[in-house]
Write a structure and sequence with these properties.
Elements (H helix, E strand, L loop, with lengths): L1 H16 L8 H58 L3 H75 L2 H29 L2 H27 L12
Amino acid sequence: MGDRAGRVIVGSWRWLWGLPVESGGKVAVAVAEESLQSMQESVQQLAKAVAQQVGAYERARTKYRDKIDELRAYEQQARLAQRAGQEDGARLAMSRAIQIEKLLPALDQQVQQAGTFVEASKDKLNRERNKLEQYKSDMQNIKDLAEVNAALESIAKVNNEFDIGSARSSFEAAKNAVEGRNMTNAALAELSDNPQEKLAADLDQLSLDDQVSQRLKALDSTPLLPLPEAHQP
């Protein structure tokens, strides 16, 4: 997909779902899978590029070997022409051999440079393949960890829904509130009773009790008078 397309996709996910990658949920797993797919495609493209480099290197080596063979052929032609007394032919063949001989160092350097590039590209391809395998393993670990996180979240949700400790705390708080209100009401009732009025009432009761006792004693010392007789009609 490429880096730009990948960023667009990630941005779309964030816009549609409203969840950041940092949340570590399903969005993060999806982004990791998309990134892994992008890396796989990049490694495939790199492998194709390395294959093209190897092909170009092999063609360059073949061309270099062909030039060496061509140089040897011209030298052989010059040797045979000279032995046959064909001076002009010998000189022409040797001049062509000399031209190729001058070209060979540059061709050799290019072939060596191409070989260096190819080896570096192969090493890079191997490193990227190793990294890709590591990322594949990490991808599986990410999925497994995401599943564990989801399970833990489910457990936490159940614990929160059936939190007896929370209910117990609420009960204790309600109990304390009721007891506190009872104590408050008792204190208010006690404060609402006027102590002066209570003292006066107590004194009046004592005085009444004393008067009753005195009157009863007076009854004991007074002779009992006969009741008047009723008149006969």
